[in-house]
Amino acid sequence: MDTYEQLSLSGTVARVRVVEDDGRRLYLELSNGNVVTVTRQEPFEFEVGSVVFVRLEQGQENIGAAPDELWPEESWVGVVRLVLADKMVVDASGRWRLVPTPDHVELREGNTVEVRESSGVVRVLSEKPVKYLDPPTVDDAVIDKFKRKKGAKRETFDDFGGLGDVVARARELIEVPLQRKEELSKIGARPIKGILFTGPPGTGKTLLARIIADNTDAEFYEISGPEFLSKWYGESEEILRKIFEDAAKQERAIIFFDEIDSVAGQRDDGSHEASRRVVAQLLTLMDGFTSNRNVVVIAATNRPQDIDAALRRPGRLDWEIHFRPPDRDDREAILRSTSPPSTAPLLPHAWVAENTEGWSGAELTAIWGEAALLAAADGRSTIFVEDYVEGFQRMAARRRWVAQTSSGGDAA
């Protein structure tokens, strides 16, 4: 052994890693992880794994046996992922390690265990897996974020102008099952679990769901993709479970999924694993509905073709209501129902309705926002005819600009 190795090993505890066949060369592992070699003329009498103490005496190395307790071995913690007769796979903070299956410790997959390199599994620390990163706890405070706030303005069907046929069908499919559950049960009718609202953006899908919830005194849960999807593994599914459990405790409840295609798209080889898990969880929860649960699921989308096909099978979102663009009479009704309280009489609703072909309910409602800004800028608290007409013209110009930029034209 050269001088550097002699100096580095003086008064050092090491462990034998390899003994060469003739026994005259040892490979020793130091506590810092480095490996050095020791050679001599006579064979060593140490076995692999032995703990030794190396010191210098008169310039010569002296290696003797040392108690195992002197080796500074640290244990590490992992979660058992697979147990075989001779080996087991342990997940150590994302790194899978292969260790011997112990005879003296009873364990199973999912246990959190303490492991040492020399002796393998030492003990079971927990029957459940301890995660390297623990997601936030899904408690009542998390679920409350999806509930409509207590004391929020109650909306009525007077706030929803036009689309009388759509409103009538929605009330039939949602109000009747929520308010006439006993009668339907006596008839033996299959309970209505889910309704799909389809149609272009801004046609009032969300508003109508809220109005029906208010009209039936139902607890209203509103779920949208950005608020619901979590970066934590399994948390989105847990939120879904908790929402459905909470809804089942209510006298009446409506669970509303806005843009359902963003969280429950078609499952295929290219879909994300998190999305597939969410769809599977939603299917399980809807299939778990029983006749005594007064809960209706409403999902809204403007891309029904993108929803996973399994969600549209019988017993799930198998009823559909299409929200068409409002016709001329619908547009006039929307303008009248959404007008602010402080407006001048005899506003030209019929003229604006005639000139807003293809406009959505949201775009029609936005006219009032523009008109209110014009009135306030003029120091008035009442919307006059000129404010109303100018508000319409501003919204028309905005629609033209959006259409032009969307088609790749020059908006300047």
From TrEMBL:
AAA+ ATPase domain boundaries: 191-327
Domain of life where this protein originates: Bacteria
Keywords: ATP-binding, Nucleotide-binding, Plasmid
Database matches in CDD domains: RecA-like_CDC48_NLV2_r1-like
Molecular function terms, GO-annotated: ATP binding; ATP hydrolysis activity
A Pfam family matched in the record: AAA
InterPro entries for this protein: AAA+_ATPase, AAA_ATPase_domain, AAA_lid_3, ATPase_AAA_core, ATPase_AAA_CS, P-loop_NTPase
Protein family (similarity comment): Belongs to the AAA ATPase family.
Name the UniProt record assigns to this protein: AAA family ATPase
Species name: Rubrobacter marinus
